[in-house]
């Protein structure tokens, strides 16, 4: 069995986001990088600026939410799982203004594993996982953080065929 090309899948996922989520295109989100444990989205300041000249808080929370969603979606795509992914709940903290282009780094917290997530998905057809997202700020401190719980639910192939969406 050939393992999927993670960077290629990540680039395809960002293209998908930009073509199907108007906000992702308007924010000019781009792939900043990815590895086995994290996914980074890049956002230029200009389309995300507020009246004070720094990044709009709504843009910060949006890029963090989208980077968390993308991390979960990428893990599912790597396994070939066809799921809908939703954010179930989140908590955001704004810690300092962001005055330049910015990134959001999404990763699993240290006490969370993909193993239990996929075990639940395989046995129940749905699963929840917590993701931690950070917008780096000055001096190694975060400018904003988001802790979110994402839900993945297998798509029902027979229902998709019946309603014409497959």
From TrEMBL:
<dbReference type="Pfam" id="PF09500">
    <property type="entry name" value="YiiD_C"/>
</dbReference>
<protein>
    <submittedName>
        <fullName>YiiD C-terminal domain-containing protein</fullName>
    </submittedName>
</protein>
<dbReference type="InterPro" id="IPR029069">
    <property type="entry name" value="HotDog_dom_sf"/>
</dbReference>
<dbReference type="InterPro" id="IPR012660">
    <property type="entry name" value="YiiD_C"/>
</dbReference>
<feature type="domain" description="Thioesterase putative">
    <location>
        <begin position="11"/>
        <end position="153"/>
    </location>
</feature>
